[in-house]
User: Fold this.
Amino acid sequence: MRKLLTLLTILISNLIADNAQAQLKSYIGISAGLSTPTGNFAKSDYGPIYHENNKAGYAKNGITMGVDGAYYFYKNLAIAGNLTFQDQGGLSKKDVENLAAGYTDGFAVDNSTVTANKRYNSLNALAGPQYSFVFNKVILDVRAMAGVIKSLSTPETRVDLEDDPTHTFYQRSSKSASFAYGAGLGLRYYISKKLGVVLRGNYINSDGIKITNENRNINAGRLVTKQPISLIQTTLGLTLSL
Amino acid sequence: MLKLKNLTFVLWGTLLFLGGCTKEEQAVAPTIANESLTTVILKATNTADAADTTSCRYKFTFDSQGNVTSSDSTPLNLKANATYAVAVQLYDELQSPVFDVSAEIKERQNYHLFFFQPTPISPANLVTGLTSPYIPGTATSATGPYLNLSVARTDHDTNNPAYELGLADKFTTGEASSGNLEVVLRHQPNAKNGTYAPGSTDLDVSYKVIIK
Assistant:
């Protein structure tokens, strides 16, 4: 294991040394693609009674789009940043059935009705150091990022227990923001001196955005107060050297 | 450059479209009935003498459709001027092995609350409210004779703040007397607040009580 790590370190160091050249040109670009939720954010299980999965996000695959750029301040080293929008869908019929069954059992009622609307829409603003490896016309960007994820909306639910309208409770749509971090890989290929196409993959994680609940009077049933977000973005875009 | 600008407009146009696009979904999930309450036992242990125990039992009989066809109860015999630790035990004897419903109630304690109503009771003794196990609206007697029994719940749930539950209780007797004790289990999903009013009734039984 130690030998492998040493070998990898030498390999990467050599690659960086070989690639270090005249300062690369800064660039800006736009891209769009697929945003795939991972971890608890992607889970769609209510969980067993008393062990409810309060972090399950019921998020779906969705689209992402945004702007991306890097400012090279020393040879292959740059400060990179991106601003992306992503949509992770809303609750499906199957999801609300799953939630309703969970609340029916969780509160031992004859029936419960779950009504859901709104979707996961958010903006990410992330920045961090980037190192670029140049292979002729192809440039491989490796970056680490940190920043903020700003929720524009999250699924909103209304839960009616039996036919008692006085104790209906709500999970409200969130517009809160949270710290986020991640890493990314990008492959840029220049089709002209200035214009290139870029294939990019980013992993982004956030411990969670705050979720507000209303009329939760007792300690029972699934209760989401913080929604963790983790996703992988795979995008294709255009990039313009500056 | 112009093309890039147009593409940006398309992307942000899509963003605005998705932001406004929302679809409502609704589902109703009925419960899957899994147990009946056939037997309710109050087991009392004299706190001054652990060997001095007594109990009473209320039993429902069901037909094959799950409807109650009959019920019977045994009286609760208590000593005068004594204090008892009382455990409420609930069972489903239709299942084999017998299912302990009180364990289920304990698990679901955050939305269950027991009430105990001795009668006849004087208007002065019928104190209801947050920590009272007595039932509001109970008919009182101005003249007596009264059942000289007072009840206090001694266990609590895990709500914040914690509310009483009533699976464990303290019965305090006075002078020799007789009457009835009504036991009600209230089911208060997302509504439990220590009082009788919210929710619905899961159980309502009555025992003859003899204090001598």
About this structure: Chain B touches chain A through 39 residues (CB under 8 Å). The CA atoms of residues 113 and 165 of chain B lie 5 Å apart.
